[in-house]
Amino acid sequence: MVESIAATSLLGHRPVCGGYCFTDVSRRRKQFAVCRIPVTKFLGRNVVRTHSSLKLGVDRLVVPSIKAQAMELAKEAYEYREEKRIPRDFEYGIDTGVDRKPGLWPPDNKADKASLHNPLLRQERMGCGWLGAIFEWEGVLIEDNPDLEKQAWLALSQEEGKSPPPAFILRRIEGMKNEQAISEVLCWSRDPAQVRRMASRREEIYQALQGGIYRFRSGSREFVNVLMHYKIPMALVSTRPRKTLETAIGDIGIKEVFTVIVAAEDVHRGKPDPEMFVYAAQLLNFIPERCIVFGNSNLTVEAAHDARMKCVAVASKHPVYELGAADLVVRHLDELSVVDLKNLADIESAEFGSGEPELEMEEEKCDEPYPSTSVAVDDFW
């Protein structure tokens, strides 16, 4: 036992054992064992140990130099550990290096917001339960009539004396702002004043054909109510004027549903440019990876993926097989659940980067080159 204690002590000292005699109540002498550790003193580069007991007959013993060096190394290791100790003010920076030090919090996560003082809310933002929904208007929440869009463009071309746009051009300008379509695709004018006038006139023609009648698509109201129940923030994005959108959502009774409304006046370009969706995510105070876009065309899918967002396509005017590029394809919004949305907003997706290292294909090296398949001319003949 003495040897084991000496092995575990820092200097390797062997304890000194002794004893005292005392008299108990019965007047019998009993011996009380005592185990003492020698007292260590530092004298220059030498370490000297002394015993308090004079009965042992040992005054001073010089410890060998190797034990003194061990003491110095132990002291240096303790000082290093004191320097590396984590402070208690909890003002940690996010370590983006590969060699992450254990024990630091919070981990590297794009969804983290250091200005939040509530740790539970901060953890919720980094979990997949924190997400935002961005909805398009026509064909997703309400019923739309694609023929009205074509009729409005044909009527405007007739008023302006322009050639009627063909069908493939009309498909190309779906989802664009009126100004963008007139100046960049139809090339009817480059004058900003003329472009604004024709864009406004085109919107008047469409509203006259539409008649101001809005009707929910099947399952849209139920899905919106579910998101409101779970307090998921929602944004409405459309290339219609803001006044038209506010009037429409007031007529169908969902004015207080949307936290953010992005209209034609708020952006410079429409789809397939992701500007509308990026701006909506900024207003929601969400990172793009945590936003889910609900649209009904491949232009919406392209714009959402360019903005690093997930997209749920609603097959309202296009068949399901044409919307295969979307992350999820449904016929009606009530087919979705909150679990589906959380799976889309999971932090283990490729945008956030999983903790597993990527496998790289290594080029196989051959010591011997492949045999030549060429045939000499002499051998052939």
Structural class: alpha/beta
Radius of gyration: 39 Å
CATH superfamily of the largest domain: HAD superfamily/HAD-like
What CATH architecture of the largest domain would you give? 3-Layer(aba) Sandwich
The structural domain count equals 3
> What's the overall average pLDDT, rounded?
75
* Coarse morphology: elongated
- Helix content percent band: 25-40%
Give the termini separation: 93 Å
Strand order of the largest sheet: 8-7-6-9-10-11
Helix count, DSSP H or I runs of 4 or more residues:
13
Question: What fraction strand?
Answer: 5-15%
CATH class of the largest domain equals: Alpha Beta
H/E element order = HEEEEEHHEHHHHHEHEHEHEEHH
Topology (SSEs and partners):
Blueprint: H1 2-8, E1 16-23, E2 29-36, E3 39-43, E4 46-50, E5 61-62, H2 65-83, H3 119-126, E6 132-136, H4 146-160, H5 167-172, H6 178-185, H7 192-210, H8 220-229, E7 234-237, H9 242-251, E8 260-262, H10 275-284, E9 291-295, H11 298-306, E10 310-314, E11 328-330, H12 338-344, H13 377-380
Parallel strand pairs: 6-7, 6-9, 7-8, 9-10, 10-11
Antiparallel strand pairs: 1-2, 3-4, 4-5
